[in-house]
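Example with several molecule types.
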Amino acid sequence: NAGVTQTPKFQVLKTGQSMTLQCAQDMNHEYMSWYRQDPGMGLRLIHYSVGAGITDQGEVPNGYNVSRSTTEDFPLRLLSAAPSQTSVYFCASSPVGSGGEQYFGPGTRLTVT
Amino acid sequence: GENVEQHPSTLSVQEGDSAVIKCTYSDSASNYFPWYKQELGKGPQLIIDIRSNVGEKKDQRIAVTLNKTAKHFSLHITETQPEDSAVYFCAARLQGGSEKLVFGKGTKLTVNP
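Resulting structure tokens for the full complex:
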């Protein structure tokens, strides 16, 4: 198993540009989530999904969209990037009802200029 | 909602000493408390977890204790080694909270040889 994969590893955007951060998992996990990590702020939940076709907002959802058309994929879209979205983004997955262990991807470092 | 406080934010110890990181949570309905280790440039990885029906759990050099009455839990690392140097995050999950985790802000542990 590859586990949780994320692409790209690094990205630089200009303010106002759009892009999609990709996340995929091959463990057949129902639950997937996106976090952003900023210095001194820990990991903050952006959006999450408990299964295909179901998504919900986390703690910091503004400026981000998600969709979940398959169990495997959970892309994160930035429609109009802002400097405040400069961060490291992590995707995670877990089985629903497993008791909670989440498996994290390697992260995407995004810089918005 | 749930709030998790983590202390200290940085911790420096000599190789062989013990390290203790403490977290408090606000919602008494939380029932699952994982600890993640994040090495530089990587995603967080689960190292140990504890559920609300248990007071202590050990795995070799690491242990976690939980005090439900006081709503705090701690990570203990004994006989620290340089490879223990990393950022450690605690988290809490609400009972029935769809696998959502709320993270502390992290502790940067440095083990000096």
